[in-house]
Hints:
Elements: H1 3-18, H2 22-67, H3 69-91, H4 109-115, H5 120-133, H6 139-167, H7 175-191, H8 194-201
Amino acid sequence: xxxxxxxxxxxxxxxxxxxxxxxNMMLMAxxxxxxxxxxxxxxxxxxxxxxxxxxAVGFGISGLFKxxxxxxxxxxxxxxxxxxxxxYKVATAGPVGNDxxxxxxxxxxxxxxxxxxxxxxxxxxALTAISAYTIPDxxxxxxxxxxxxxxxxxxxVVSIWTTFGVSLRGFLRDAQKVRIFNIIMAILLVISxxxxxxxxxx
Length: 202
């Protein structure tokens, strides 16, 4: 991959990964509620899961959407519905240290990997990256380089968002503050869906 294209790809990966979205909102909430160590599987699932998604989309799923456009619309609607459900789960999560209920458990590695497939922002990033930064004459190699770039960029980025959440734990010591924080994060999660909602119902 030419150096100028690689530089542009790194910048795109950094900016698109760092901007607020469902993954980052949930990681920050997890940092507040569970701390860095317990959120680590979630972080790894985001970084590696998106890389797996890029490869899968690059090796054929995007062609399926081109052949059957309605499938992408169905996927988007199902994704939005699931994200709204997750926003509800975040908003109603128990306070820090409450490990009694199922909803107080952090997302696992496999759950985070699977989550990428219902994340509208992840689909937008994957389809945009593949269409803009792959080289037709060297498609496979450029797709592999792209995947590696995103994995290498994603982990530091998700670490920053989780650390930001962890840094708020001292401030959010009482259950009422945590409840307010979780509600705010749920609202931001819903707001992060606006581009997908606008594209679906325009």
